[in-house]
Amino acid sequence: MIRLPDRFDVVIIGGGPAGYATALYGAAAGLSIALVEKDKVGGTCLHRGCIPAKEFLETASMYRAVASAPEFGISTGPVSLTFSRSAERKRRVIDQLHGGLQGLLKRRKVVTFSGTGSLGADRTVAVTGPDGTVTRLAGRWVVLASGSVPRSIPGFDFDGRFILSSDDVLGWEKLPASAAVIGGGAIGCEFASMMSDLGTQVTILEALPALLTGCDREVADVVTRSFSKRGITVATGVTVTGHSPKGGVRTTVSFTSPPSPAPPGTPSVSPAPPGDSEEITVEAVVVSVGRRPLSEGLVSADSGVEISEKGYVKVGETMETTAPGVFAVGDLVDTPQLAHVGFAEAIVAVKTMLGESVVPVDYGRVPWCIYTHPEVAFAGLTEDAAVAAGYKVITHKTRFAGNSRAMIVGETDGMVKIVAEAGQGGSAGRVLGVHMVGPWVTEQLGAGYLSVNWEALPAEVAAFIQPHPTLSESFGEAMLALTGRSLHG
Questions:
Q1: Half-sphere exposure of 446 toward its Cβ, with a 13 Å CA cutoff?
Q2: Residue 202 host element (H or E)
């Protein structure tokens, strides 16, 4: 007797943020849901990404706070770190969140299948369990949410010993004395900031001309200066060429830096001369050059789902793929790889299934948060991007150096920068971008995000009262200054 596939309203492959958000939101709407996950629900974000990374960054924050306690008149004695205790706390936080998520899925009556899912024709999903048993599921709709994995680069294959992925770093029980971070984006800078604060000697090797490409230049400059003051070596515009173990406990990383600029009036040479070769010897190399979609083996040739050359599943603005009734969300699609973007995409997908009115995700205006020290948060266009898009812009910066709350907490480095469309007679039109760097700005972005997405005028935002003394006053001051008058600016 041939057993027919189990049928559900929605079958989801992948239990990370985008996948479990689809399950929870769909179940709240009364849909029957099957969730297929080969590891643990929560995915990379909960187990090997956002949550453990921020737990370690909080350890760094606590270490800084204790070390600076004498400034507040509190005697603590020498500050020491037992990193294994931080790792233990990280596991407790993850376990608690994982248990809560499992309970929530169960209460919503989501049926979870343990195994690897693969989509075939007619929205049928084959689930291969840990013991090799295959279970077939059929869905009125199918959602692909298999996520992503860390990218490697030629000559730096992950070995878990010297060459480490983000997965490896977040499993550490002990910090290395020295480390090279290849990649100066958000994740690389977070790792560098954390390690440096906790005593590791860090070098960042970035191929592009500056750190945190995509951030406003002035915001990125604040982070770069802070890193330099704290002893982090930043090498930009470099190309890593290889590595070789040294003494069994360290490895030497080779890289080339850009050639020195020729003196004015010197004839140009083509091709350009090669840069200088350099090398550093460290205990660990953290490769942080982004993540790639995990789409291998995800769909069969007759599924109707198209995948790009880079491995991303092709979708429209409602997150539906080229196969009717099949959706894809999260890191699997070529959109910002952020958990909260995955949440938003999940809601769009479910609403589309239900025939409800849908507001597609505006990826140019999503909120970004980077948990370095100092923190970075932004939404909307940078000044350079706005100018490149043809806008005439007006900007204002309010620095935390003049903010009373920032002085009280001892964190005055940073600013709030507003990018607005230039109006008539030098007035400020709609807000195009809000960019913050400084203390706890990841918790302050909400008002900026709303300002950008509602296309508010600075005068409209400035009419709202900011409590005193708070860090958020700097945002209010920047908006008020754009009206042509200010209090403290």
A1: 4
A2: strand 201-206
Provide the residue type at 483 as one letter. Answer: T
CA-to-CA distance for 482 and 489, rounded, in angstroms?
Answer: 10
**What is the greatest pairwise CA distance in the chain?**
85
pLDDT tens-digit map of 184-213: 999 999 999 999 999 999 999 999 999 999
The residue assigned the tokens 């004395």 is 177
Least Cα distance to 146 among 245, 239, 234, 39 occurs for 39
Helix, strand, coil % (nearest 5) of the chain? 35, 25, 40
Q: Is the dihedral of CA 404, 439, 204, 184 positive or negative?
A: negative
Residue 431 and residue 393 in contact, taking contact as beta carbons nearer than 8 Å = no
Residue 13's DSSP bridge partners are: 36, 144
**Is residue 360 within 8 Å of residue 316, measured between CB atoms?**
no
Residue 273 confidence (pLDDT)? 57
Instruction: List 9's β-bridge partners, or say none.
Output: none
Question: Can you list the domains of the chain with their CATH numbers?
Answer: 6-149+292-363 (3.50.50.60), 163-261+271-287 (3.50.50.60), 374-481 (3.30.390.30)
CA–CA separation, 203 and 183 (whole Å): 10
Question: What pLDDT is attached to residue 245?
Answer: 87
Provide the whole-model pTM.
Answer: 0.94
Residue indicated by tokens 């977040």? 170
Dihedral (Cα; 346, 352, 358, 364), 10-degree rounding: 50
pLDDT of residue 2: 45
Q: How many Cβ atoms are within 10 Å of 168's Cβ, its own excluded?
A: 18
> Is it true that the peptide bond before 374 is cis, omega within 30 degrees of 0?
yes
Distance, in Å, from the CA atom of 363 to the CA atom of 434, rounded to the nearest integer, reads: 15
Query: What residues in the chain have per-residue pLDDT under 50?
Result: 1-2, 269-270, 272
Instruction: Report the C-alpha gap between 115 and 133 in whole angstroms.
Output: 9
Distance CA 75, CA 82 (A): 20
Q: What ranges make up the beta strands (E) of 237-282?
A: 239-246, 250-256, 277-282
d(CA 231, CA 373): 13
Q: Determine the Cα–Cα distance for residues 486 and 489; give it in Å rounded to an integer.
A: 6
Rg (CA), the chain: 25
Residue 45 to residue 147: CA distance in whole angstroms: 10
Report CA 407 to chain centroid distance, whole Å.
29
* 468 catalytic per annotation: yes
Q: At what angle do helices 83-107 and 50-67 cross, to 10 degrees?
A: 140
Catalytic choice (396, 435, 468, 488): 468
